[in-house]
Each structure stands twice: as C-alpha cells, then as structure tokens.
Design a protein that fits this description.
Belongs to the G-protein coupled receptor 1 family. By secondary structure, the chain is mainly alpha-helical. The chain contains eleven helices and five strands; from the N terminus they run ββααβαααββαααααα. About 75% of the residues lie in helices and about 5% in strands. It is globular and about 65 Å long.
Length: about 300
C-alpha cells in the first residue's frame, strides 16, 4: 500500500447497528429507554443496599459496586451511540475513540472481577459458614475491590498504548456502534501481531483468572451442597447462588461468542452478540437480583415506603 493511503486518522466514523437513515430514529427510540432503565434500575439497587442495614453484608457490598460499574459501563457506550442515531456524520475523534475503548475494556473486566469476588463470597458463605465473618472481613473485601479495579485498568492501559502505536489505512469507518478493540484493529494497515499476541496471552490470562475463580468456587459449592442431607437444605443453599449464576452465564456466554476467535472471523453477527454483554446484561442485572432475591425484594419495598413517607 502506498504512503499516500496511510494516515493517522483525526476521527473515525461509527456505522452503528444500521447505516440506513430510516432505521436511526427507531433505534434511538429503542435504546434510550434501555439506557434509562439500566441507570435507574442499578441506582435503585445501590440505594436499596445503602439504606437497609440487613443488606450490609459482603455479598450486597459487591453487588452495589457491580451496579455502579454497570452504570459507568453503559454510559461509556450508549450516550454516544444515541447521539450518532440522530447525527448525519456519526464521527468520533481519535482521542475520544481511544478513551471510549479504554473505559470499555476497563469497566468490562472490572465486571468480570467483581463477579469472581461474589463467587468467592458465596463459596465462603456455603462451604465455611462458621468462619464467614472472619474470612470475608472488611479488609479482605476492600482488597478484592482494589484488585477488581486495578488489574482491569492496567490491562486496559496496556491495550490502549499498543493501539496508539498502530498506523491506520485510508479507511476510517468502524463497522460497529462503539470503538471496540477488534473493530479498530481491522482498520490498521501496520502489523498488529504484537497486539493480537497480547490479546490472546495477557488478555486471555486476565479474563480467565476471574472465570477460573468462579468455576472453582462453584465446583466446591456443588460438592458441599451435595453433602447436605435434606432436599430443602440443598434448595436453600443453591437459591443464594441462582441470581449470580444467571448473570455469569449471560456475561461470559456472550463474550466467548465474540472474542475467543481470530480477528479475521469478526462479523456483523458478533456485533449483535456484543449488545448482550454491553447493554442487555447491565439492564437485566437489577431485575435478576431483585426478582430472585427475597432480601432485595424486602429492601426495595422498604425503600419505596420510605420515599412515599417523605
């Protein structure tokens, strides 16, 4: 490729979910309520946990942080997507694109580590109930929280630094609704072998570490629950894990469909799958945790009564 076709782009064009003009307003009308529901639902989870003394436990502490991260996660993506639905240019500056990519990777991986922390909490609660308060003390919860934020942000910083070293071709059109790492890489005409190797090694290790914690925790939980003699006791033990397992399945199921494949195989179908973990999972989390959790239901009712009484 000639040097005239090689540039460092000032901006990118986000094609979004559809390039047809007649689709833009219906898409805006669909995703605006989704964003509002996500933000309000997760805020309600945070307020409920903060206002109810019965919910001041490690599990709900991590859930409130997860809700906060989910709000940040969707705010990184959806407002720009909504603005592009109503814009003719659909442009995003190079710096804004890298910033969006940074926080998308960071918050996405923070979600993963928080889910692992919650799995560890359930493991301790079910397998070591007599030592639960001692093991899951305030200091350990804060340590898990710090790790859940620091590791993903350092991981994200590495990816952004590597992306910033790339040279991009004449095309600046991103076939996605946000600056996803895979979509931006496809525009590069310089060798991104180092970046892909990093994604498949360091990136895989960063993702698999919390996932392995979740798998090991639930294997130990499963073995412990099988030893409970009564069926009622087994159901009670499993019921405390149902909501968490549902969220983990949604989150990791959709991610594995998109990212555990070569860059050349990245298609439009993957763009649709991305919606599940970037938009739908954060929206569904409050419903999953509130509708399937008696303590959260009672906490929400108390919060509503308190608001009405003021």
């Amino acid at each position: 490729m000639g040097r005239t076709n090689v540039t460092q782009p000032i901006e990118f064009i986000l094609l979004g979910l559809s390039s047809r003009p007649e689709d833009q307003k219906p898409l805006f009308a669909m995703f605006l309520p989704i964003y509002l529901i996500t933000v309000i639902g997760n805020l309600l989870i945070i307020l409920t946990i903060r206002s109810d003394t019965h919910l001041q436990t490690p599990m709900y502490f991590f859930l409130s942080v997860l809700s906060f991260v989910d709000i940040c996660y969707v705010t990184v993506i959806i407002p720009k997507m909504l603005a592009n639905f109503l814009s003719e240019t659909k442009a995003i500056s190079y710096g804004e694109c890298l910033t969006q990519m940074y926080f998308f990777i960071a918050f996405g991986n923070t979600d993963s580590y928080l889910l692992a922390a919650m799995a560890i909490d359930r493991y301790v609660a079910i397998c070591n109930p007599l030592h639960y308060i001692t093991i899951m003390n305030h200091r350990r919860c804060v340590l898990l929280l710090v790790l859940s934020f620091c590791i993903p942000h350092l991981h994200s910083l590495l990816h952004i630094l590597l992306t910033n070293q790339l040279i991009f071709c004449a095309s600046n059109v991103i076939h996605h609704f946000f600056c996803d790492d895979q979509s931006v890489l496809k525009l590069s005409c310089s060798s991104h072998f180092v970046k892909e190797i990093t994604v498949m090694t360091e990136g895989l290790a960063i993702i698999m570490t919390p996932f392995s914690c979740i798998i090991i925790s639930y294997l130990r939980i499963f073995i412990t629950v099988l030893k409970i003699p009564s069926a009622a006791g087994k159901c009670k033990a499993f019921s405390t894990c149902g909501s968490h397992l549902t969220v983990v399945t949604l989150f990791y199921g959709s991610i594995s469909c998109v990212y555990f494949k070569p860059l050349s195989n990245y298609t439009v179908r993957d763009r649709i799958a991305t919606i599940v973990y970037t938009i739908l999972t954060p929206m569904l989390n409050p419903f999953i945790y509130s509708l399937r959790n008696k303590d959260m239901k009672q906490g929400l009712i108390k919060l509503m009564h308190r608001v009405k009484g003021q």
